[in-house]
From TrEMBL:
Natural source organism: Litchfieldia luteola
Lineage: Bacteria, Bacillati, Bacillota, Bacilli, Bacillales
Protein name: YtzH-like family protein
Matches recorded under InterPro entries: YtzH (IPR025547)
Any Pfam family matching the protein: YtzH
């Protein structure tokens, strides 16, 4: 059963929240975020403002996937993680 965009946003928020709280993550999480965001970006039901936030998160996940230290990458983006989580909450 495919996930609707609300479910996808919840999963994305959960991954971001876990990374923000734990200050660590995995390449698989970055890849999962990329897949979710690609699906959300083509969805016409998604608000334009959300898509801007999704583009930022996509860049973050791509950079994280290829960084030498994902934990440092996450730690360096804690402020953005908090903001993205808040943004997702405001659009949900």
């Amino acid at each position: 059963m495919p996930l609707n965009h609300t479910d996808q946003m919840h999963i994305l928020k959960d991954i971001l929240s876990n990374q923000q709280t734990d200050c660590c993550g995995t390449v698989a999480e970055c890849e999962q975020m990329e897949r979710l965001i690609k699906s959300l970006m083509i969805n016409t039901d998604i608000d334009h403002n959300v898509k801007s936030v999704l583009q930022d998160i996509y860049s973050y996940s791509q950079n994280g996937k290829y960084t030498q230290s994902l934990d440092n990458h996450i730690d360096n983006h804690r402020t953005e993680l908090t903001q993205w989580i808040n943004d997702i909450d405001s659009f949900s």
